[in-house]
């Protein structure tokens, strides 16, 4: 409720999340709200920590202070990622958003390591924790703040598909766990003289470190090149196959240069005997329409195939039958037949799933196995094979 009110009040045209300006405003809102809430929580927890002499509460307070820094990084990340393309960065600056998420993750880790040491010192040199009812209530209130902030980040992050804001949401949720643990330790300290504060501080530090590790993993993957969204892949293929004369697609590759900056290339199978001018017009129209619809930049390569030669189609059927015995092959494409009479070379590419990382000798072994299976179906065929890897890990149309 409050999240939607903030969005409606501070973001004009909030439903137009494909707009870079609107997306930037969402990022600013997320960073500013997160920074203010965490600054308030730091003040509350630091005061409580000093009042009751608790290292666990103080650690939790400085965890919130690091989140303020994270919010500042997020704001600058959205600002810089929104810069237009230039000579040095022809595909824009969108990946800066991922880098800002990575900086947030390292800040979280730094706080975690600092309080591992502080908590260990408290275990070695225990100091009594003084329970007080009012500070305990303040801690419970701070937990409710964090629950709301986590949901706020999640809402905003999902609206604009922002890895940085989603990461902040996960971080806020881990803070809920750590704060609840700290509140529990403060309550327990009322009934025992054991140095529970230091041990709980170690638990909080472990939660912080684990959150930092997950944040690094989530923000590093798109920088290194993670698989594209399955829904995007299916949309590109389905939309392209709806165009006249396009009978199949393969070799789809998607490059992510930041949110809203996706470049994709794909091969489209078209009839060999169609007019070049006509099929070029269809391909050109498909590129423009699909790019506009999905907010990407799509490049389509034409692969001419035979659609009415009975001999070639029969050879293709024979290859399809032979490949049923080779489990690692997911599909084949770029099929051609060379030669006259009974003896012919079948030239084609096979797609192997990414779970099968083949070395050169293993590729040769696979090629020989396919050729062997093909000769069982038709003894006079020779297979000339190129092995492709399926980077999308999805079955493509043959």
Number of β-strand runs: 6
Assigned CATH class of the largest domain: Mainly Alpha
What topology, given as strand order, has the largest sheet?
Answer: 1-2-3
Q: Mind summarizing the main beta sheet?
A: 3 strands, mixed
Helix content: 55-70%
Q: What is the averaged pLDDT score?
A: 82
Structural class, from secondary structure content? alpha/beta
Residue runs with pLDDT of under 50 for 5 or more positions: 394-398
CATH superfamily of the largest domain: Cation efflux protein transmembrane domain
Q: Total number of helical segments?
A: 11
Shape: elongated
What is the CATH architecture annotation of the largest domain?
Answer: Up-down Bundle
- Gyration radius (Cα, Å) is 29 Å
Give the end-to-end Cα distance, rounded to a whole number of Å: 49 Å
Please describe what this structure looks like:
There is one protein chain. The chain has 398 residues and is α/β, with parallel strands linked by helices. The radius of gyration is 29 Å and the shape is elongated. Helix 11 links the parallel strand 5 and strand 6. Strands 1-2-3 form a three-stranded mixed beta sheet, with helices on one face. Helices cover 61% and strands 15% of the residues. It has three domains: 223 residues, Cation efflux protein transmembrane domain (Alpha-lytic protease prodomain-like, Up-down Bundle); 80 residues, Alpha-Beta Plaits (2-Layer Sandwich), CATH 3.30.70; 90 residues, 2-Layer Sandwich (Alpha-Beta Plaits). The protein starts with a helix and ends in an 8-residue tail after the last strand. Helix 2 runs antiparallel to helix 5, helix 5 packs antiparallel against helix 6 and helix 10 crosses helix 11. Belongs to the cation diffusion facilitator (CDF) transporter (TC 2.A.4) family.
